[in-house]
Every structure is written in C-alpha cells, then in structure tokens.
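Entry: Methyltransferase FkbM domain-containing protein
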Amino acid sequence: MNSTLRIGKSVINSVIKRMGVRLVNSDWGPRGFAATFAKLKQCGVELSVIYDVGASDGSWALETKKVFPRATYALFEPLSEYRATLVNLADGDSHIKFLRCALGSTRGEFELNCHDGQSSFLESTSWKTQRLKVPVETLDDLVETNKLPPPSLIKADIQGYELEMLKGAEETLKSCNFLFLEVSWLQIYEGGPYAGEILGFLAERGFHVYDICSYSMRPLDGRLTQSDVLFAHERTGLFSKRCWS
C-alpha cells in the first residue's frame, strides 16, 4: 500500500471508529463465516449434510443455507424458548430436522447455566446465571438412533462445551470433513478448554485450521478472547497446495 492510500485510510478510520467500524484491506481477514463458506464453494466443496449444534433461533443455519441451499440441516437445541421457532423451521422445510437436546461426552441430565440469551454447562467467570436442567445426549448415539445421514460439516457454538461434544462424537467425526467451532483464547467459563486443547484434540484426528472467520476481544484490555474457526480434515485435499499464489 503506497503512502497516500495509507494516510487516506488512517484519516477515514479516525472518523468512522466512533461508529465502531474500521476500514481494512479487502485481502485481510476475518470476513465472517459466509465468506469462508463461499470460498469453499469456489474450491469445489459442496456440503450436503450440516449439523448445527447450539442452533439457538436457527439464524446461523438460515444464513448458511444461502450458500448451501441443497444441504440437509439437523438443528440441535435444548432451550424451550427456541422450540417454537425451530419447529416452524422444520415444519416448513423438509431439508431441516430439529432435535431438542444438548450434546456432550456422556448421556444424562445436566444443569445448564443461562444468562442473557447465552447458555453453557460450565459456570461463567464474569456473570451470575440461572440454572436449568436439560437432557444431554452424545452425537454418536443420536446419529445412530435417529438414523441421521453422516455430516459434511458440524457447527458447534455451545459456550465452552465444544470439546465435550467432540468427545461424544468420535464415530461421527470419522465421516465428517469440516468443523466450524467457537474456540476460546481466554477462559470465559470455569474449566472450559483453551483453543490449544481443541486444536490438539482435532489434530490427532486429522483436522487442522483452514480459516479464522471472526474474533472478539475483551473490552478491558483488547485481549483476543474467542474466534470462530473452520477446521478441515486432511482427506479433503485442501492442505495439499504449498504454493503462495
């Protein structure tokens, strides 16, 4: 970038930062999961079955459906406040299936800590929560009992419980090529895994980071806190090219 453009960008950013935005080079990331998925399509990847773990109100699945409209979606969500919305989504689209449950490493009934639209089986380090008992299944058991088709991609945004979910999905992971996970660089939940633990667990199973789609920083000091990361399996061939351009 030449000096004129650099100065111009600096001036613009000094103005628009008051609105909470900034101007960056279009080649820089992150650009969000939709842009990453569009990039996958450009590489010839077509996802046919997508599991959305921690589906909330289904908005992530609907946004992803714009990129992969022909895929089948299985939405997993335990909270009753989202039930009607997800039931309506499933009733209105034969390619969407809703399963009301949480996922973990073992079956049972566990207490979910809820706060301001977020929920986790782990206790928060920053705020008080309300507790709610919900049924928990393993993904491997659910896939078998519900005869679900094997996933092309598993998305999980379950507030620090992603690793436990993965531990209950050992068989399912053997046929899955992509994982879209929220990972933490700072321990937001008591006992929650750091990003390195998840990266190590997945590397042992052939998954590696393909793209960092978004990130958040702690308001206290700007420290990197969480990232949405897309992992791809070695068998996809996406890591075979070593050239720069």
